[in-house]
Amino acid sequence: MTAADSPWLELAPGHPFGVDNLPYGVFSTPGTAPRVGVRIGDQVLDAGACAEQAGMESGEVWLTPSLNAFLAQGRQAWSAARHWLQEQLTNERRRDCVEQHLLPAESVTLHLPLEVADYVDFYASEQHATNVGRIFRPGAEPLTPNWRHLPIGYHGRAGTVVVSGTDIVRPTGQRKAPEEPAPTFGPSIRLDIEAELGFVVGDATRLGDRVAVDDAGDHLFGAVLLNDWSARDIQAWEYVPLGPFLGKSFATSVSAWVVTMDALEAARVGLPGQDPQPLPYLRGEHPPYGLDVHVEVELNGTVVSRPEYRDLYWSPAQMLAHLSVNGASVRAGDLFGSGTISGRERQTRGSLLELSWNGTEPVTLSDGATRSFLEDGDTVVLHAWAPGPGGVRIGFGEVSGTVVPAR
Amino acid sequence: MTAADSPWLELAPGHPFGVDNLPYGVFSTPGTAPRVGVRIGDQVLDAGACAEQAGMESGEVWLTPSLNAFLAQGRQAWSAARHWLQEQLTNERRRDCVEQHLLPAESVTLHLPLEVADYVDFYASEQHATNVGRIFRPGAEPLTPNWRHLPIGYHGRAGTVVVSGTDIVRPTGQRKAPEEPAPTFGPSIRLDIEAELGFVVGDATRLGDRVAVDDAGDHLFGAVLLNDWSARDIQAWEYVPLGPFLGKSFATSVSAWVVTMDALEAARVGLPGQDPQPLPYLRGEHPPYGLDVHVEVELNGTVVSRPEYRDLYWSPAQMLAHLSVNGASVRAGDLFGSGTISGRERQTRGSLLELSWNGTEPVTLSDGATRSFLEDGDTVVLHAWAPGPGGVRIGFGEVSGTVVPAR
Question: What is the pTM of this model?
Fold first, then answer.
C-alpha cells in the first residue's frame, strides 16, 4: 500500500508520513488532554476518538496519555490496529468519519510518547566503539575483548528521557584531566551528542524468563530517533569502574513519533557481518537483520554528519535477547538505544567527540563558526528516514534540542 | 516517645516495630486490594481506612497500591503523617477506632512497597571497593583515582526490583575466565549477594535543578534493606567499559517495610572521615552523617556476616546530591542503594565474593556445608536494626530470597 492509495488525503508523493508509515505519538490541544495520535501527512489523527466513533472498543487505550497501555497489548493488537488505521485512511467510505478527527500537525502540542519504564543504552556500532576506545584509552586495544561476543550496554536514567524540543540545561559536575592534580567542579566544557535509534518495547515478560532472539519481534513495537546527550569531561572522570552515570543521566531526547517495526519492514537489511559467530542465544533460526535508516545530524542548521544505521554490528533483536538472557523481565514502555551510529567515513560519525576527534579537528559550520563541543544556544536536530514499500519514504520526523546555560 | 507510652498496644519492651518506628509498606488481604499499611508491633495498621474513619482527607494516598503518591507529597506531609499516626497509636481515646483497622502481620500479603522510578546503585564502602579492586584487578591500585572524590554509582534495572520473599531464578549468560579462549554460556556459577541499604526518594525536582546536599533530607523518605544479587562470572566478563549490566539486572530484593528517616534520627552518626575533603557541593553547611544500622547476613540459617552501615565512606545525603548535581531530576519512587556494606574485619563483609575471597576461603555453615557462592535452594536473609530514642530498637524486618534453578 502506498500513499497514492488514498487520494483524498492529498499527500505529496514521497511524503515521509504516508499510510505506509503511521507513527504513533501523544498530543494535546487546548481542549484535549494528552492522548495517542497517529501522524498522517501534515495532520494528526485523534485515533482514540476515531475508534470510539467507529465503535471499536479496543481503541480505548488510545485515549490515555501515553502509549504504554497500547504497548502492553502486544504484537497481535499492534498489527490489528495498523490494518484498521490503514483501512480508515484509505477507504473512501470512512472519509467523513476520519476527517472529523484530523488536526493540523502544527496545531497540536507533542508530548513524550511513552512513560519510559527501563532505559538501556547499547554500544552496537563497531566504528563508534573503536573511535571511543582510541580517544579514551590511547595505546590500548580500542575494542575490549568482550565487544564482538556480546552487545555491550548499560542502564540509563528513564526519568530524564525527554521529548524533542525540550531545552537541554548544560550539566554541572566533576571532571579531571589526567594531567590535573585534583578534580574541579563546574558546567561541562565538553558537551556532546550521540545520534542513535531507540527501540520501544511492549508485551511484558515474567521475571526469570528470557526473550529468544527469534521472538524479539513480538516485543519490538517501534523505533524513535534518540539523542544521548553526553558530557565527555564528566564521563571520562567518573566511568571507571562502574560505567557512565552523570555524564549521561541529565537528559536523553527522543523524537515525538514512534515509527513501528511494521513500517520498517521494507528497510530490513543484512548486518555488515559478525566474526566470531555469536553464541547460539544471539543467533536464532533466522538471520539477524539491521535497518536501512539514514540519519542526518544538523548543528545550528548545518548538516555535520550523515550516519547510516545499517553499519551497526548488532541487530535490535540481538540486543533485546541479550538484555533479557539473564531472566530480566521487560515491561511495556522499556526503551533501549542502539548506541551512537558511526561509520568508517568521517562524515558518518554520530558524535562531536568523533567528528572533532576529541577537539583536535573542529567541525566548521556554514556560517564559518567552528565547534568541537556544544556551546550554549546551540541547537542540534537529528532527522531520519528509511525506505518503505514501493519506493516511498518512511520518515522519523526529528529530535531537536537547544543547549541552555547551567543553572 | 517509646513503645511504653502506648500500654494498650501491649508491645514487648524493645520490640523492633514500636511507635518510634512505624515503617510503611503495602499489604493486601483476601478482601482488601493492595494499599498502604503501617507496621506496629506484630500488627499492620490499615492506615488509609483509619484515616478515612477519622475524617483525615490526606489519608487518601494510603488507599493506593504503592507508596508513590505519599512519596510525592514531600517532607511536611511525611512529618504530619508520622505525628498523626503516633497520636492515633498512643492516645487512649483513639483506641477503639484504631483497633478496628489493625490486622495480624502474619495474616496479610506484603507487596513491593513502591513503584520504583529510577534505581541507582552506589559503591560507598571503601572496604568493599578495595576488596573488589584487589579481587578483580589484582596488581593494580585497588581504588580507582576518582573513588575518594565522588560517590561512584550506576543505574540499575528498576523493573526487576522485587519484594522480600520473591524467589530468585538463577541467571544465565556469558562468562569467560581470563585463561579461557572464548566465552561460554550457561547458568551463572558464581551467584552472590550484596548486603546494602536502599534509600527511597520522594518530592520530585524539575529537570535541570539539583538537590543541594543540605536539602537532601527533604527528599529522603526512608530506607529499606536491599540485596543486590550479583552473578560475578557474568559481571566480570561484561563490565568493561560500560559497567555492570546483566550481572546485576536479573533481580534486586528489598524489604517490605520502609523505615522512615525520621525513625532513624537517633541512629545518626558521624562518617568515618573523608580525605581529601570533598568538593563543596558534597559538603554543605552541616556535617554529613551516616547511620548506625547493624546488618546481619544469614545463609541457610547461619549468620555469616554482620556488616555495620556506619563504616560507609559517603553519606546518603552526599549520594543524593551527587546523583542530581548534573541537573538530573528525581521522582517520587526513586531508589538508590548504598553499595555493599563491608568493614575491615572478615566477619563484616557484605558479599560472598569478599567473605570467600573469590572462592579461595569458603564459608562454613552450621551444618558443616561450605559455600563460596550460592547453590540452588539456598536462602539468604538480611536483618537489620538501628538504635532509636531512649534505647528502643528500630527494626528493618528482613529481606529474604531463595535461589531456584535457571529456567
Answer: 0.97
